[in-house]
Amino acid sequence: MSKVLMVGNWKMNMDKSSIKKFYDSFDKKDFVDGVEVVICAPFPYLGTIAELSDKISIKVGAQNMCNELAGAFTGEVSPLMLRDFNTEYVILGHSERRQIYLESDELIAEKIKIALNSGLKPILCVGEMLEEREAGKEFEKVYKQLLAASKCISLDQWHNVVIAYEPVWAIGTGKVASASDAQNMSKYIREQVKEFAGNEIAENLRILYGGSVKPSNVKELMECEDINGALVGGASLDAADFKSLWGTL
């Protein structure tokens, strides 16, 4: 299995001075073998974190991108532009993009395809609403999201794909899925990828859990057999909280 992956998603937070303070809080001794760390920053600060990341072991990630390389798409950002800032990862299909901006499974699949073709590693977010879980439809919902994405991923590209399970009802609410619930869905995701792409790819796929991950619950989540890291929101805004997430592993 590849390294554990810890991804901070700052969402629409931080400014230039707070970013410098954040990065100044780290030095090389804060990073450990077997853990890969990524910060997904707002677009205006990708250049800033790219410069700061050169000094420490934090990789650069974006929070979204356009499904086109260039053209008359006012307000959008091309994956090629992201590459100019040494961006390695990009979050796609986050529930806030799906719910607020009405991004469909098909649009997200298109973004995954162009991200991979542009040399980026997509972090595909999947997850159910509370009413879907209560109706027993959580697996059906996640399967639909996975299936759409799988149609745009060739077999030789799967090794660059990360999947993040984020139950929508647990994002930014303080609620967290039980370790058992998170493991069950992560196992299900791995089983579906096995059907799409084969056993070897499924075994090496990194599956993250996201949804109110914090220092108090990360250890239990990371002990789950099919969870290989975390997609972290609020706890990634504080350097001490963020580094403690892998310091306990």
Describe the protein in words.
With 249 residues, the protein is of the alpha/beta class. The protein has one domain (4-247): Aldolase class I (TIM Barrel), CATH 3.20.20. Helix content is 39%, strand content 17%. The protein is built from 11 helices and 8 strands. The protein has an 8-stranded parallel barrel, surrounded by 5 helices. Helix 1 (16-24) packs parallel to helix 2 and helix 5 (105-117) packs across helix 7. The protein is globular, with a radius of gyration of 17 Å.
Map the helices and strands.
Blueprint: E1 4-9, H1 16-24, E2 35-41, H2 46-53, E3 59-62, H3 79-83, E4 87-92, H4 95-100, H5 105-117, E5 121-126, H6 130-134, H7 138-150, E6 162-165, H8 179-197, H9 199-204, E7 206-210, H10 218-222, E8 229-232, H11 239-247
Parallel strand pairs: 1-2, 1-8, 2-3, 3-4, 4-5, 5-6, 6-7, 7-8
Helix pairs in contact: 1-2, 5-7, 7-8
Supply the CATH class.
Alpha Beta
Low-confidence stretches: none
Question: CATH H-level name... which superfamily?
Answer: Aldolase class I
Q: Based on the structure, what is the oligomeric state of the protein chains? A: single chain
The class by helix and strand makeup works out as alpha/beta
Q: Structurally, how many domains make up the residues? A: 1
The major β-sheet equals: 8 strands, parallel, barrel
Distance between the termini: 16 Å
> How large is the count of helical segments?
11
Q: How many strands appear in the DSSP assignment?
A: 8
Q: Which percent bin holds the helix content?
A: 25-40%
**What is the CATH topology?**
TIM Barrel
Rounded Rg: 17 Å
- Taken as a percent bin, the fraction of beta residues is 15-25%
Shape, principal axes of CA atoms = globular
Main-sheet strand order equals: 1-2-3-4-5-6-7-8
Overall CATH architecture: Alpha-Beta Barrel
